[in-house]
Design goal:
The chain is α+β, with helices and mostly antiparallel strands. It is built from 4 helices and 7 strands; from the N terminus they run E-H-H-E-E-H-E-E-E-E-H.
């Protein structure tokens, strides 16, 4: 299932990246989204920063999802790649379960506007599981959308505090 989200901020793209790259932002997002967010890799190779973050949702999954994944919660690695100074970040998700039956990838772009900037997240989340896959995709896209809304609120709070 493809999705697109957009959020406007009263700051420059550089200021927005400085907030989203800050570990304080990650800690606040973890609390707000009831998840554990642990950085397991942060490396720069040929001018591209690669960050791998292990995310474990602390809330219980709905019954049908629990049966498919065989667990009460979900853990996954989110890998992001962004060239130094670039305003586009590529991301992908590597789940700890459903490997080979899940695709999660996309981009996050930050574009300058007349009054600040806009963050545009476009991606695809696909779950290849008979019968319940489409419902799981819808639930996942809804959760991702809610998480990015929470993130936008935290970014605005952090901007106001500067």
């Amino acid at each position: 299932m493809r999705f697109r989200l957009a959020h406007r901020f009263d700051c420059t793209p550089t200021e927005l990246w400085s907030i989203t790259d800050d570990e304080a932002f990650e800690q606040r997002l973890g609390k707000a989204s009831d998840s554990k967010r642990e950085k397991v890799e942060d490396d720069v190779t040929n001018g591209v920063r690669v960050v791998r973050r292990r995310i474990t949702l602390q809330r219980e999954l709905p019954g049908p999802m629990r049966r498919v994944v065989g667990s009460n919660s979900i853990s996954y690695d989110q890998i992001t790649r962004r060239a130094e100074g670039a305003n586009t970040l590529e991301w992908e998700i590597e789940p700890m379960v459903l490997q080979g039956r899940f695709v999660g990838r996309g981009t996050t772009r930050v574009v300058e506007t007349a009054t600040g900037c806009e963050r545009i997240i476009e991606g695809e989340l696909t779950i290849k599981v008979p019968i319940v896959g489409a419902k799981m995709e819808k639930r996942l896209v809804d959760d991702v959308s809610a998480s990015y809304e929470q993130a936008a609120g935290i970014i605005r709070e952090m901007l106001a505090a500067r």
